């Protein structure tokens, strides 16, 4: 049984993507369109995840997902897209997809999210439903380590996501040391002097802020607490 059934009509992209996934330890079977994919399923092919391009010929990725569900096939579906329109992402999740990944995010982000889904499959979950943690305009997806601000993906790395989750879900003020531990591991030391790690934390927080500001120029939810650390602004302020 392959791990992934990849459906994409771009021959070059499909070849490169499948090779990249194989290099990262996945087994992959490929299809150029929805009807060929459905025929393979009818003939008994099984897998753990379907990775569908949204803009497919003959039938769209959404139409293909609808057919799967009409046939009672509970194969987890992840959408790939070259356009990160919020309304499409919301529609995909509403229709029952477990994730929605912009191709521009790159293979490493996609591979991480696929591993999370496959780990759930190995533990017996047939169609994982994304958990959502909400804090005002922020939506966190713990299972795939994604952060959406005002329904737009912020594009955080795994480490950046963990820091934001610490600030939001941990409540209160988080020290430079606590944030640094999330960046590395408890007790790790780098930088000059006993508190040299604070420079690294500040640099990381600047990168995170820039990503939120790219989505929303008025973003101000991350607050510095002088000489102590950072906190997430409470919704009422």
Automatic annotation (TrEMBL):
<dbReference type="GO" id="GO:0000976">
    <property type="term" value="F:transcription cis-regulatory region binding"/>
</dbReference>
<protein>
    <submittedName>
        <fullName>DNA-binding response regulator</fullName>
    </submittedName>
</protein>
<dbReference type="InterPro" id="IPR036388">
    <property type="entry name" value="WH-like_DNA-bd_sf"/>
</dbReference>
<dbReference type="GO" id="GO:0032993">
    <property type="term" value="C:protein-DNA complex"/>
</dbReference>
<feature type="domain" description="OmpR/PhoB-type">
    <location>
        <begin position="129"/>
        <end position="234"/>
    </location>
</feature>
<dbReference type="GO" id="GO:0000156">
    <property type="term" value="F:phosphorelay response regulator activity"/>
</dbReference>
<dbReference type="InterPro" id="IPR011006">
    <property type="entry name" value="CheY-like_superfamily"/>
</dbReference>
<feature type="modified residue" description="4-aspartylphosphate">
    <location>
        <position position="53"/>
    </location>
</feature>
<dbReference type="InterPro" id="IPR001789">
    <property type="entry name" value="Sig_transdc_resp-reg_receiver"/>
</dbReference>
<dbReference type="GO" id="GO:0005829">
    <property type="term" value="C:cytosol"/>
</dbReference>
<feature type="domain" description="Response regulatory">
    <location>
        <begin position="3"/>
        <end position="118"/>
    </location>
</feature>
<keyword id="KW-0597">Phosphoprotein</keyword>
<dbReference type="Pfam" id="PF00072">
    <property type="entry name" value="Response_reg"/>
</dbReference>
<feature type="DNA-binding region" description="OmpR/PhoB-type">
    <location>
        <begin position="129"/>
        <end position="234"/>
    </location>
</feature>
<dbReference type="InterPro" id="IPR016032">
    <property type="entry name" value="Sig_transdc_resp-reg_C-effctor"/>
</dbReference>
<dbReference type="GO" id="GO:0006355">
    <property type="term" value="P:regulation of DNA-templated transcription"/>
</dbReference>
<dbReference type="InterPro" id="IPR001867">
    <property type="entry name" value="OmpR/PhoB-type_DNA-bd"/>
</dbReference>
<dbReference type="InterPro" id="IPR039420">
    <property type="entry name" value="WalR-like"/>
</dbReference>
<keyword id="KW-0238">DNA-binding</keyword>
């Amino acid at each position: 049984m392959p791990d992934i059934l990849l459906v994409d009509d771009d021959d070059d992209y499909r070849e490169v993507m499948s090779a990249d996934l194989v290099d990262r330890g996945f087994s992959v079977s490929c299809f150029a369109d929805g009807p060929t994919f459905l025929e393979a399923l009818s003939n008994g092919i099984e897998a753990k995840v379907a990775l569908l391009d949204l803009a497919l010929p003959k039938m769209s990725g959404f139409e293909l997902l609808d057919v799967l569900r009409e046939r009672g096939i509970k194969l987890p579906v992840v959408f790939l897209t070259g356009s990160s329109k919020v309304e499409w992402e919301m529609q995909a999740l509403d229709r029952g997809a477990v994730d929605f990944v912009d191709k521009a995010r790159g293979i490493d982000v996609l591979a991480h999210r696929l591993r999370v889904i496959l780990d759930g499959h190995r533990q017996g979950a047939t169609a994982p439903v994304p958990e959502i943690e909400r804090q005002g305009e922020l939506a966190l997806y713990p299972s795939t380590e994604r952060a959406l601000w005002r329904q737009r993906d912020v594009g955080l790395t795994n480490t950046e996501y963990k820091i934001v989750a610490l600030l939001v879900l941990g409540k209160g003020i988080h020290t430079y040391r606590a944030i640094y531990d999330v960046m590395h591991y408890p007790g790790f030391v780098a930088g000059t002097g006993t508190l040299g790690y604070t420079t690294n934390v500040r640099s990381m927080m600047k990168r995170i802020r820039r990503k939120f500001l790219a989505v929303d120029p008025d973003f101000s939810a991350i607050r510095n607490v002088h000489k102590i650390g950072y906190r997430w602004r409470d919704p009422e302020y």
